[in-house]
């Protein structure tokens, strides 16, 4: 795992928490913030996944 993967998953978790708190409290702004954090986390994790795939590919086919 690389830094982008770890941070991306962390953002997804924070986003899920914010979304849940927003739903429970009826705070639509916090709920939306949670949705955005989750989306950003997925993108960042995707970048990390691509980097890992590229690194693995280079190792297999130097």
From TrEMBL:
Question: What species is given as this protein's source?
Answer: Caballeronia glebae
Superkingdom of the source? Bacteria
Q: Kindly provide the name given to this protein in its UniProt entry.
A: CsbD family protein
Region annotated Disordered sits at 21-62
Where does the record place the CsbD-like domain?
Answer: 4-56
Q: What's a Pfam family this protein contains?
A: CsbD
Question: Source taxonomy lineage?
Answer: Bacteria, Pseudomonadati, Pseudomonadota, Betaproteobacteria, Burkholderiales
Q: Where is the composition biased (Basic and acidic residues)?
A: 25-34, 48-62
What family, per the record?
Belongs to the UPF0337 (CsbD) family.
């Amino acid at each position: 795992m690389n830094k982008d993967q770890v941070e991306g998953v962390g953002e997804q978790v924070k986003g899920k928490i914010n979304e849940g708190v927003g739903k429970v409290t009826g705070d639509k702004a916090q709920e939306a913030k949670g949705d955005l954090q989750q989306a950003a986390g997925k993108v960042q994790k995707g970048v990390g996944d691509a980097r890992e795939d590229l690194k693995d590919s280079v190792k297999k086919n130097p």
